[in-house]
Structures are given as structure tokens and as C-alpha cells.
Design goal:
InterPro entries: CBS_CbpB, CBS_dom, CBS_dom_sf, Diverse_CBS-Domain. This protein is α/β, with parallel strands linked by helices and 145 residues long. The protein contains seven helices and seven strands. The chain has a single domain, classed as CBS-domain.
Length: 145
């Protein structure tokens, strides 16, 4: 494919390296925290994308955000899981990338994030690029160099 030192490799678009949206666990912003916690638990992920009804990326939700939102002063307020909506506690401050983003840019962002959400120019969710995929590609290129 590409050599590790090849500019082609580092400048390649990430389109071939993403997990498509159809295969990514997600929730909608109007879902309850209970639903989000179930999806997170069943999927085994610590964080998943939050979409609106038209599949625009709106945020990320994690088990820790959900837990923090139901912690009371003296006990965990489990009843809030069915009362609160995902949009009330989701993270909206996270990097995104476009399909045309270069591999090197995704690599730099994945240093601090386990995955990156990929969107189109209109903010529609296209999928995710994981740190694992980047590391596998780098490993492959190192051993083929």
C-alpha cells in the first residue's frame, strides 16, 4: 500500500479507514439517560455519538457523564435516568473530521481521543475513525517499510 515515510500515506484521505455510521452504536438527543446507558452497556463502549432525528452529529454521551448527572449529595438518584434527556448532559466540545481529512491530521487528533466522529459538510454523521484503526495501519506500514 503506502510506505511509512511516504507522503502519500500521511496525506491519504481517511475515507477508507472509517467505521460507517450504520455500524456505530449511537443514541438520539431526545432519548432518556436510561436508554443511553443501556446502549452504552450493551455496546461495550465508554462513549457514543449523539444524533438528531435527521442524523446530524450533536454530541457525545458517556457512562461517566450519565453517572455524574445522577449523583446526589447523599445517594445516586436513579430515578433521574428516566427523567433526564441525553441532550441535557451530552458533551458538545469534541473534535470532528471530514471524509476528506488527511490521515496525518486524524493521527494527531487521536492522540487525545479514542475515536473521532466523521461528518460531511452539512454535519451529517458518516461514521467514526478509531485509534485502533490508525494503530493497525501504522503497524502495517512499519512492517512493510
Amino acid at each position: 500500500m503506502f510506505s511509512l515515510h511516504s507522503k502519500d500515506f500521511l496525506e491519504a484521505n481517511i475515507a477508507d479507514f472509517i467505521i460507517p455510521s450504520e455500524k456505530v452504536a449511537h443514541v438520539q438527543k431526545a432519548n432518556t439517560l436510561e436508554h443511553a446507558l443501556l446502549v452504552l452497556t450493551k455496546s461495550g463502549y465508554s462513549s457514543i455519538p449523539v444524533l438528531d432525528a435527521q442524523f446530524h452529529l450533536e454530541g457525545l454521551i458517556s457512562s461517566s457523564l450519565i453517572t455524574d448527572s445522577i449523583l446526589g449529595l447523599e445517594h445516586i438518584e436513579f430515578e433521574k435516568l428516566d427523567e433526564k434527556k441525553v441532550e441535557e448532559v451530552m458533551d458538545v466540545d469534541f473534535p470532528t473530521i471530514l471524509l476528506r481529512t488527511k490521515f496525518i491530521k486524524a493521527l494527531q487528533l487521536l492522540i487525545d481521543h479514542p475515536f473521532l466522529c466523521v461528518v460531511d459538510e452539512d454535519g451529517l454523521f458518516e461514521g467514526i475513525m478509531t485509534r485502533r484503526v490508525i494503530l493497525k495501519q501504522l503497524n502495517r506500514n512499519i512492517h512493510n517499510a
